[in-house]
Amino acid sequence: MAETSNSVLDNDYIEALREKYREERDRRIRPEGEEQYLAVSGKYAEFVDTDPFTPVTPREPLHDEVEIAIVGGGWSGLVTAARLVEAGATGIRLIDDAADFGGTWYWNRYPGIQCDIESYSYLPLLEETGYIPKEKYSYGSEIAEHARRIGELYGLYDKVVFQTRVIECRWDDKAKRWILRTNRGDEMRSRFVVLGSGLASRPKLPGIPGFDDFEGKVFHTCRWDYDYTGGDVNGGMAKLADKRVAIIGTGATAIQCVPFVGESAEKLYVFQRTPSSVDLRGNAPTDPDFFKTLEPGWQDKRRENFNNVLMGVPVEEDLVNDRWTVRRRLVERMMAQGKVPDMQSLMREADLEDFAHMEEIRRRCDEVVENPETAELLKPYYQRFCKRPTFNDQYLATFNRPNVELVDTSWSHGVERITKNGLVANGKEYEVDCIVLATGFEMSTGFKRRIGVEVAGRGGVSLYDHWSEGMRTMHGHSIHGFPNFFFVGLSQIGVGPNFTSMIDGVCHTVSHIIAEAQKRDLEEVEVTAEAEQAWIETIRAGTPAVSPLEQCTPGYFNNEGQASKTVSNYTSMLYAPGCNAFNALLAEWRANGEFAGFQFRRSNDQGGQ
Ligand code: NDP
């Protein structure tokens, strides 16, 4: 596809597009916002309560004590554990619901699952493990394998309790220990707790009338039922050969699995409410010579370079050089014109650049999709970062298959109704054998519901009461009133596209604090109320009063079109200067050794550092 610059779009055209974006947004807004979805609890709990991949191994409940309990064996827990091992910390125990490491990459095994961030930047600890990813963009099974590699290299398999969900963490102020209760009847005591259980792992079920009436098969993409479909992550789902399948949703997950289901099913209906922007992927095997050229420290540098390009910071070379990083064109053009790419002018010019980029995305629909009506329906009319951009070289072409049909549901706010035999859209019933829910995950519902662990700190205060007016942390990881407790998540840290790069500084810092506390034999480490407040003010200062995402088409980035009305949406709670600035801030915080903002207490101590 030829690269275009905004100079090819005249002002009238841009104004017409602006109007079109507004119209498309307005007709998608649903007054009930996030309430349109069903929670996976009560009769819907089965969508997450069972592990279709590994039978549960019976065991006796644990009543014991460890030093450091890490809740979650996904990247947050794994990387923190690895850093703790490197720092010489002892007495680590990881606890996870799944039967292996990997978190989201354990549970999500839908066909075609892949990471849309290049593997050399995404996969954590590549230098430490010496692993060379097979391709520029890794598939899910390679990513899950890498999680297991980290578990093995750092000796974490000896330290983990799988198939166990922590349901409560309660601080015992007398004993100076956390008491962790689980769904397996355990009562573990621990000096430190790291909560890294993920904030986006509760699937969303669409609250479509008649949802319970359907008599066929229904599953969510995060628990793919290969017993029903046959095949595996690579496709080949032979059992679908005589099945009519409906996929609801066209977000990043659907974009990846639709081509595989299209290949296998007798008939596939894709129910679309808002089209994704589907950019080129261009995956390629890793050139082993490329890895030979890399110097120690290359992965941090590469991640920083990627973040810089996305933030519009001029770089000498765009190391990642893919369809995420096309923004460099804008910065280069501005510099060639002698303009300084400061944030304000960058935002202004980026707005124009965005129209040009989205025109490329829309043109691609016309180029690939043979049926012009289908091509038109697949065109996204919104700014690029209103939704997470997607990248795939097979998705659009799948609609050229005779057995695949796109069903537009944008005029009725989604699928109208589900019946015992199928789905209704635009007044027409589509009879199907199976419904696949590619409807995503809760991103802005209350913290308690999403985290799923009751946390009671000093004086029995619930974490969720402490956060009733919005999340409160210092640096995203430490909370006043919750001694020896650390949170590793995606909120109140530096914004960036690469989640593993976003959490990297937090994993380092949390392990640094805990290792130091063990070394000094401290009874309690706790962030002060003042330090917590100061960080909240820093976050607020970088957050515009009216979110620019408010103008976006509804989705989880903007709390379904109500961006300003939420206290728990992660996109409204990020450190605006970005991931690199945040990780640098934490590195400096660690390096100066002052533990600013923390109170350390020994037994019979009055406090101080
Ligand atoms: P999303 O939330 O992105 O998409 C959900 C889809 O379901 C949307 O298309 C939504 O439409 C649609 N939908 C919801 N309700 C209805 C309804 N009633 N009728 C019709 N359609 C409906 O979920 P995904 O699982 O695709 O992605 C979740 C997260 O996982 C994202 O953060 C994504 O980036 C991430 N992910 C990352 C990958 C990676 O490579 N790193 C790969 C896959 C996922 P609408 O847009 O109109 O709301």
UniProtKB/TrEMBL annotation:
Keyword Oxidoreductase carried by entry: yes
Any Pfam family the entry gives: Pyr_redox_2
Parts forming coiled coils: none
FAD/NAD(P)-binding domain mapped to chain residues: 67-271
NADP listed as a keyword: yes
Keywords: FAD, Flavoprotein, Monooxygenase, NADP, Oxidoreductase
Single Gene Ontology MF annotation: monooxygenase activity
InterPro entries: FAD-binding_Monooxygenases, FAD/NAD-bd_sf, FAD/NAD-binding_dom
Gene3D superfamilies, alphabetized: FAD/NAD(P)-binding domain
Annotated family: Belongs to the FAD-binding monooxygenase family.
Protein name: Flavin-containing monooxygenase-like protein
